[in-house]
């Protein structure tokens, strides 16, 4: 948009006066931020209105991306960037004597997700708007986001994240679009005069779903899509029904907290209520919008695509069926055909415990009508498929089985498309996790490799690198990130490689300053910044990284005079509060950090920093500084990974197993530019098949490994007698479920190679450049374009190949 500095300054001062009734000099950064947010929202109001109007007027097909998590990160800078007003606003604020960085920091980072899944949903929102596609988000407006993590005596402590305390500058409450969601009670089918059956509800608990909309601004294209988050409230109460405190609390609870768990589908009925709540509210609002502009539902799938992001929103399937059957008198077959043509599903993990299943009793009690519909879907599925595929396979895959509602199977059966998030992951879905359903519906399965919001991870997070790139290849890559490939022309340009090293140093210094200020630890910027940032989970193997630190420590202690390449090991990770083992890993890494960081023999050769409260904003600080990107999951377990892509784009070299999208990164940047180690997925499945992995054998055959692992149970690391034993036992007593010991020697070899290679700055920067240049292909712009073409069948208006 066009904006002159004088205009902006005037508007901003007016906004401050109108909102806070004080002079600018008396405002806090929070007030400055809120005023700026409101102003930018207002600037964009017209484009948001125009976008919605034009979708309606042109009857454009729209995508609704349903996700129980969205991790958008702070919006101020990305909105400014996408509107093209960054320079003007920054200059204006500077001339007013304000500190832009402080204003940016005042914005709360909405933690409405746990990790990859939620962050991916946010990246896709940005890209859908940016490629000019009608794509809306649908989720939950949690009153409290993912917990704030602090460390006390090295242990993780969870504090509430009261992100709405000062209000939310970007959202619009739309009470007039609210709808009722029904839970519990009784339902029976009553014969109507025309002979048809209609459900009658009795004693239901009704909840009002109120939408809060946030405009998602496209990159330089005047498109603004909508992210709609639902909040649970008391229904309008004309009859003045009495609500007990307990009833009020029950309603309140639905959208109070984000489930702080991304891998364990806890059998909690509150979670199921959350899932139905936003699925039902979302589908109701879509149908209402559609019905206002169309007379028949026949062409619904030509106008609406509903995407099920992981199993949590699967109930959109029976909910759309319910509305079509009960409210629009649609015959079953037509309703089913409309529903399956509308729905598509992405699976994000092969971890069995994340394939949600609900006990039938609980499900039926909470959602009686929806259960009837799922029963009918189940009955028809069985009747249809058993004669062709046999009873056994049908029993294994039907939506109802073992006394449970099996959400992943329902999602596959009720969708026309099922995708994994990297080629290996999709193959594993076909071969293993969903193999039976793949046999029945081979045509539904496809791969869509994940992508990232490049502009956030480069233009916002890494301005020095962006400037350097722009100075060489111009700015066209901002809208078409594959053009980063043009940087390859500079691989032998020593001056450019030096500039690249300088940029890295600036970013390392920025992180070092933060670590100094927040943690009181001094780190040197000529050290290797060896970064592992992701949720804490056994399969992600932070333990392997921990063993390497012990090894390096013992090595320096054994031979203090030997020259070493200095290294800083940097972690960021939250553990689910109920995930005991993960919390023990945090404690041990923190204890190890204490030991290493305070040992005078070690000095600044080796440092360990576990930065608390990892999230999108800290990612923006850490990622640009990384030399090494640790992507060390047990092969086959990480569906894709996306921090691997963000780190690559910022010039980090991957230290990686052949897992998830690491494989694609390695292929894109070239093997010689990464450090690859460990078992392959085939090796891992081989062990499963033969059942012959013996961790103790590996341990006994490697004296160095013994020393390192034993350090967990001797008193070398103070204060971890319980946690150290727990990890030790997981490796030896319980036979090392994630093959940490099997991969240890190979991993160490690569770490040693890294230490050696890092000393040759020019060659290192050349590898770094190869990563940056090849990273454009992992932009989410291309990923959503592929979804648009292959799955959703919706148009977009930026050409992307
Ligand atoms: C994550 C996967 O673990 C990660 O590999 C993938 O990159 C990401 O989804 C986005 O597709 N899964 C989750 C989850 O976050 O909750 O299952």
UniProtKB/TrEMBL annotation:
Record GO cellular component, one term: cytoplasm
Keyword vocabulary terms for this entry: Allosteric enzyme, Carbohydrate metabolism, Glycosyltransferase, Pyridoxal phosphate, Transferase
Top EC class for this record: transferase
Enzyme Commission (EC) number: 2.4.1.1
Pfam families per UniProt: Phosphorylase
Cofactor (UniProt): pyridoxal 5'-phosphate
Reaction it catalyzes: [(1->4)-alpha-D-glucosyl](n) + phosphate = [(1->4)-alpha-D-glucosyl](n-1) + alpha-D-glucose 1-phosphate
Coiled-coil regions listed: none
PTM sites of type N6-(pyridoxal phosphate)lysine: 646
One of the record's GO molecular function terms: glycogen phosphorylase activity
InterPro entries named among the record's database cross-references: Glycg_phsphrylas (IPR011833), Glyco_trans_35 (IPR000811)
GO BP terms, alphabetized: glycogen catabolic process
SUPFAM superfamilies in alphabetical order: UDP-Glycosyltransferase/glycogen phosphorylase
Role, per record: Phosphorylase is an important allosteric enzyme in carbohydrate metabolism. Enzymes from different sources differ in their regulatory mechanisms and in their natural substrates. However, all known phosphorylases share catalytic and structural properties. Allosteric enzyme that catalyzes the rate-limiting step in glycogen catabolism, the phosphorolytic cleavage of glycogen to produce glucose-1-phosphate, and plays a central role in maintaining cellular and organismal glucose homeostasis.
Protein family according to the UniProt entry: Belongs to the glycogen phosphorylase family.
Protein name, UniProt field: Alpha-1,4 glucan phosphorylase
């Amino acid at each position: 948009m066009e904006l002159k500095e004088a205009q902006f300054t005037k508007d901003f001062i007016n906004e401050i006066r109108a909102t806070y009734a004080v002079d600018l000099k008396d405002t806090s950064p929070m007030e400055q931020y809120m005023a700026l947010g409101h102003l930018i929202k207002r600037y964009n109001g017209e484009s948001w209105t125009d976008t919605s109007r034009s979708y309606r007027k042109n009857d454009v097909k729209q995508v609704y991306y349903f996700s129980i998590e969205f991790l958008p990160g702070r919006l101020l800078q990305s909105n400014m960037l996408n509107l093209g007003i960054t320079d003007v606003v920054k200059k204006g604020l500077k001339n007013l004597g304000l500190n832009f960085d402080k204003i940016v920091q005042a914005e709360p980072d909405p933690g409405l997700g746990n990790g990859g899944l939620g962050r991916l949903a946010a990246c896709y929102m940005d890209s859908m708007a940016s490629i000019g596609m009608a794509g809306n988000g649908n989720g939950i407006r949690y009153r409290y986001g993912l917990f704030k993590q602090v460390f006390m005596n090295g242990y993780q402590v969870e504090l509430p994240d009261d992100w709405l305390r000062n209000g939310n500058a970007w959202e619009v409450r739309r009470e007039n679009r609210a709808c009722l969601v029904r839970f519990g009670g009784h339902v029976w089918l009553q014969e109507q005069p025309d002979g048809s059956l209609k459900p009658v509800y009795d004693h239901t608990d009704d909840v009002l779903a109120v939408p809060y909309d946030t405009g998602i601004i496209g990159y330089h294209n005047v498109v603004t899509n909508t992210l709609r988050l639902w909040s649970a409230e008391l229904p309008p109460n004309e009859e003045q029904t009495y609500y007990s405190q307990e009833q009020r609390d029950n309603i309140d609870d639905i959208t109070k907290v984000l489930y702080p768990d991304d891998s364990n589908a806890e059998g909690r009925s509150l979670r199921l209520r959350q899932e139905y709540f936003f699925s039902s509210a979302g589908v109701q609002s879509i149908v209402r919008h559609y019905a206002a502009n169309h007379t028949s539902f026949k062409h619904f799938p030509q106008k609406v695509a509903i995407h099920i992001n992981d199993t949590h929103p699967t109930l959109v399937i029976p909910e759309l069926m319910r509305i079509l059957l009960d409210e629009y008198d649609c015959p079953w077959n037509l309703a089913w055909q409309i529903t399956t043509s509308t729905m598509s599903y992405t699976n994000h993990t092969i971890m069995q415990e994340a394939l949600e299943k609900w006990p039938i009793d609980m499900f039926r009690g909470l959602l009686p009508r929806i259960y009837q519909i799922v029963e009918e879907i189940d009955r028809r599925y069985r009747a249809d498929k058993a004669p062709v595929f046999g009873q056994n396979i049908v029993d294994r895959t039907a939506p109802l089985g073992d006394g449970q509602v099996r959400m992943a199977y329902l999602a596959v059966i009720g969708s026309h498309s099922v995708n994994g998030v990297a080629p290996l992951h999709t193959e594993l879905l076909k071969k293993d996790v969903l193999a039976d359903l793949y046999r029945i519906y081979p045509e539904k399965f496809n791969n869509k490799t994940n992508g990232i919001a490049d502009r956030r991870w480069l233009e916002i997070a890494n301005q020095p690198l962006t400037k350097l790139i722009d100075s060489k290849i111009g700015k066209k890559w901002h809208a078409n990130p594959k053009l980063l490939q043009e940087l390859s022309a500079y691989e032998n340009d020593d001056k450019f490689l030096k500039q690249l090293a300088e940029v890295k140093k600036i970013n390392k210094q920025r992180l070092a300053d933060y670590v100094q200020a927040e943690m009181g630890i001094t780190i040197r910027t000529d050290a290797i910044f060896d970064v592992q940032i992701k949720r804490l989970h056994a399969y992600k193997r932070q333990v392997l990284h921990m063993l390497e630190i012990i090894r390096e420590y013992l090595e320096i202690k054994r031979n203090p005079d030997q020259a070493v390449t200095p290294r800083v090991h940097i972690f960021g990770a939250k553990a689910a509060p109920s995930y005991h083992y993960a919390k023990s890993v945090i404690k041990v890494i923190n204890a190890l950090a204490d030991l290493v960081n305070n040992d005078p023999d070690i000095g600044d050769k080796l440092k360990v920093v576990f930065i608390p409260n990892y999230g999108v904003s800290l990612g923006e600080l850490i990622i640009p500084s990384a030399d090494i990107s640790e992507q060390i999951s047990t092969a086959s377990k990480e569906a894709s990974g996306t921090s691997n892509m963000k780190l690559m784009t910022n010039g980090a070299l991957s230290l990686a197993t052949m897992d998830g999208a690491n494989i694609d990164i390695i292929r894109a940047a070239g093997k010689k530019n990464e450090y690859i180690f460990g078992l392959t997925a085939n090796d891992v499945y081989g062990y499963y098949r033969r059942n012959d992995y013996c961790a103790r054998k590996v341990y006994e055959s490697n004296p160095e490994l013994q020393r390192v692992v034993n350090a967990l149970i001797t008193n070398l690391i103070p204060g971890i007698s319980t946690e150290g034993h727990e990890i030790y036992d997981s490796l030896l007593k319980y036979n090392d479920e994630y093959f940490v010991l099997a991969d240890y020697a190979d991993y160490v070899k690569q770490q040693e190679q890294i230490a050696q290679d890092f000393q040759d700055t020019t060659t290192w920067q050349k590898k770094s450049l190869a990563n940056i240049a090849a990273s454009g292909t992992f932009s989410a712009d291309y990923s959503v374009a592929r979804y648009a073409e292959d799955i959703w069948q919706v148009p977009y208006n930026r050409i992307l190949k």
